[in-house]
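Researcher: Re-running this chain for the archive, since the previous output was lost when a drive failed. Same request as before.
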Amino acid sequence: MLELGLNGKNISTLEKFNQGESVSLRFAFPDKIVLSSINGFMSRILAANDILFLQEAMITILRESILNAVKANAKRVFFEKNNADMNKVLEYNSLMRQFKEKVVGDMAAIESDLKSSSYYAEFRIQKTEEGIKTRIVNNSPLHAKEEERIKQRMESAKHIKDFSEAYDKLYDETEGAGLGIILTMLLLKNSGIPQSNYSISADECKTEISLIVPFKTKSDETLMAVKEDIINEIHLLPSIPTFINELLVLCDDPDSSISQMSNKVKGDPALSADILKLANSAGFAPNKKIETINEALTRIGLSNFKYILLAATTKRIMDQRYKKFEQIWQHSLKVAFYSRLITQNFKLSSLTEQIFISALLHDLGKLVLLAVDNDLTIKIADFVKSHGIRTTTILEEISIGISHSSIGKLISEKWNFAEFITQAIAFHHSPLLCDEKFSDIINIVYLANIFCGIEDRKYDYYFIEPNILQKYNLSDESKCIELHEKCKEGFRNRPML
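Model: Regenerated structure tokens:
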């Protein structure tokens, strides 16, 4: 059995995998290096077999399986440390309450104990005729209560329709195999993978979670009620006003004059105010605040002005229906600011304008999602944060039938936005799926969004796609942190409105 190369970069290991040999990675605790290695290896394998669209689902399932395996080991270490017998009912119930309080939710508290113990977990992966077979094995047998709980969860999963129902009825962190099993079954259903391809088994020495990912899947096309509401919301959105379309055409006309553009925009004072606010917030004038439309046109140029005009108009239309979600716009402004700085750092100045507008509009779909079902959105965000899942997109899809990225894509297409904007909105959480000709635009928006998420404690640096890190020479985490610090410093020093 071969060891998985660090960060999945070992080419000989990939070649052996393609020849049908089993590849593995053994660990006592799933630290950043372990998770990055598994993420990177999975990304390469899925891409090579033309099923990269399954990436987020597979990585989420693997992370949940790893978490359950390590929790099971941690439980045994905890019991041994307290000289308790898991087979004695009273001791088991008493220690489990302590385990929940001291360890569950903060696995780092027992990391050193796990690493010094004889317990381990192992990720195994093999290419078979049926598909890609993954296994998570830990060297401890199932306790009777654990086995009973798993059977109950597997049975419950057959009757759960969506994540919201699972969250309300079954959310319970007292044991390792909790909502993760239900989440896995929902992800499999949503991905078109038979639930029979997933199994949990044990003997007197080990427990194994097995999943076979077929090379071809059958997607479930069921439209959920909330999804239908969202589609209706998009249809009801008004079109871009004719006046704005005329201004956008003028921006593309080389014969247009600054005074001509300025006079037209000034006819709408509210629009003028929005444009000035965006121009300053996005960092177009790092040393001096832009005070007038004439000054904005002179300093940032017609091309940049065009995208600010488009963003301001989009914001106005959305605000008329979804005004209470101002925090989404504030987040998007910050991502746009960071994107400009990252673009400069990578010396991609020719893409500055496209990257700026893509970043500013990347979360457009979240406004509609929040408006249609805010309670569900909060539940999803809570679970994503507590379980260290890389993005809310997967849970949105299995809960609603459509993610905020896909919602934004539909809005972008309705308003005939440029293709690069539509792609950035659609793939800002899954940049490896975008069209290669737009990869730099989407990758930078993705990085800026991740940086903002790290500040909000939603993500960590090891969540970032290894392929992206490698492409921009950021594989060394210190370089990633250094770039992030530059973004934060630039944002702190921006002109205040």
